[in-house]
Amino acid sequence: MLQEFSLSEGKVILNFSVKFCDNRQKILNSYGFKKVIQTFIHKLQKDEPIIYNLYIKAFKNEEDFCKSLIEVFKWLSVCNPDEIIDVHNKYKIFFDDKDSFLELIELLYTFWRSLERFAIVHNTTIAEGLQNVRFIQASGLFNELVISLHRRIVETVMGYQHRVYRQAIAGANAGLMLSDINWNCPIEYYGLRSIPFITSVVFDPPFITYTKRNTRDGIFMEHDTNPIENIVLNGDEWFLFPVWVGSMLTFVYFHSDFMDQGFGLANLFELAKESEYIGKKPDIIYIYGYPDGHQEKRTFYYKDKKNDILIGYANHCDDVDYFGYMKKMLLTLHNVKQMERGRLPIHGAMVNISLVNGKSANIIIMGDSGAGKSESLEAFRTLNEKYIRHMRVIFDDMGFLNEEEDGTIKGYGTEIGAFVRVDDLDPAYAYAQLDKGIYSNPDKINARVTIPISTYEVISRGYKVDYMLYANNYAEADKKIKFIENLDDAIQVFEEGARKAKGTTTEKGLVKSYFANPFGPVQERPLAEKLVRKYFTKMAENGVKIGEIHTSLAIDGRAKDGPREAAEELFKLINE
Questions:
Q1: What is the C-alpha radius of gyration for the chain, rounded to an integer number of angstroms?
Q2: Residue pair 396/349 in contact by the 8 Å Cβ criterion
Q3: Residue 198: domain span
Q4: Which of 3, 269, 375, 485 is most buried when burial is the number of CB atoms within 10 A of its CB?
Q5: What Cα–Cα distance (Å) separates residue 462 from each residue in 202, 438, 467?
């Protein structure tokens, strides 16, 4: 990215490599500060017409208002109001009504802090540890400068100092360190080579984002032509996040207008190390937010068999402005690739639990969105003191089964984090995540938080499956755990994928999705059916207990108690 500053779609990107303001005067003289003032004044006309009209009458136009406001801020950083008025009488308008001027200043400060602010440092070579430290220090310095500038201006206008100081984050919410790295790029994708890799991420949680959509709709289907062959991405608008989705090296390219979705990857997937992709070819490439001229949503994948790369694609439109389109496309690509390698994707949650009495079990709870996977994990946490000595989350939403050389079936995870509904979390646990969470639309239905819950070492270790349970969220039952002895009956329950929709997508009522997994098995059903029968047969032979767990999540008034009761019954069974 060559620009020193950009402001678009409520997002600010500050390029510290091009310009770093290390004192207050540099901030006040910067192009970025002027751009923020111009945008603020334009917004002020619509949102605060009384304040806007008070000042616009004293100036010729918005441009003159902007220029004068910046000038008075410069004077206030070194002089008192009387000295400023002596310099030029045009500044008198700001001090005739101090209360209105202070309100204007606070509105500007609130506007700035309402923006999502990203700082970047672009290195031409791989960043070393010292550079990372300096980047963090620079980000901290910038934050202190913005806070001190605001306080200096306000206190000078008031004529006295504050007595209570609140250390809010006023600089950059997040920082990205970029490096130019060569990878084994096929000729069809040479237009992607100029985009730098994200090699480090720093942010100050809680990080709160607002997107244009709050649910995901539909499934991703295979496309018959390569949507990204020979396209050229602009280095001023695109970023590359190299991540491990399960065992798949994945290059995620995202447009700067969708920084929220790209940045959210930091809490969900393992950021790949430079040594893991230098000179190498990825398993998956995802282009997110490409402006192809279409207003309607276009999301699909393409199998590049020549280069053995699976391609994901989402165009630039408001309908994809939701993290679900980032996460679920990546999981679809992962699952398709894993099935091609003979592994079975599982849409569900898996935990490794060690009980107080010394017994342990590896439990998979499978189900589509809203079936109770994450809620069951939350119920396990609440029972921690009573039953559990230790609990590891292997996966919270998506994983896969692999048949090992000795014939055992082991489960592996895809994500180190979870993208969960805030409403369905225990309030104490939700508040406990404030120091590391990325929150999305916290004031709306289906508010979400992305939080780290495991490590890549844990999710990629492989755990032998002991219990394979289908999450039934719609039917109440006295017995919460029901094992199914007949293998064909069990497969039928899992393949039907029935659940009552709970508002996480646009679906309503009782719906079904093949194998409760519209992210791969639905698209590749013939292959998935073979794998389902292979793995369930093997699990039955190995003595894995297969059945249903009634979470009651979609039953009115049972969203909290249902998962907890089911968890208690499951632990009693394990204890026997």
A1: 27
A2: yes
A3: 180-340
A4: 375
A5: 30, 28, 15
